Amino acid sequence: MIPVRCFSCGKVIASSWDEYKRRTKDGEDPAQVMDDLGITRYCCRRILLSHVELVDTLAPYQ
Ligand SMILES: [Zn+2]
Prior knowledge:
There is one protein chain. Helix content is about 60%, strand content about 0%. The mean pLDDT is about 85. It is built from three helices and no strands. It has one domain. The chain binds zinc ion. The site of zinc ion has 7 residues, from helix 3. Belongs to the archaeal Rpo10/eukaryotic RPB10 RNA polymerase subunit family.
C-alpha cells in the first residue's frame, strides 16, 4: 500500500501512484513519469521508486 503522503515533506503522492505504476509498466522512464506528475523532490521520488521494487519482488507470489 502506497503511503498517502510523503513521510518527509507531506506532499500527497497516493493520487499519482496509479498513473506512475501504469506508465512505468508500459516501459516509460520512472524519472520522466515522476517529472510529469510533479513529483520533483527526492524524498517523494524515493518512496515511489522503493515501492515499485517491492511490488516487483512480490508480484510472482500474488
Ligand atoms: Zn517528499
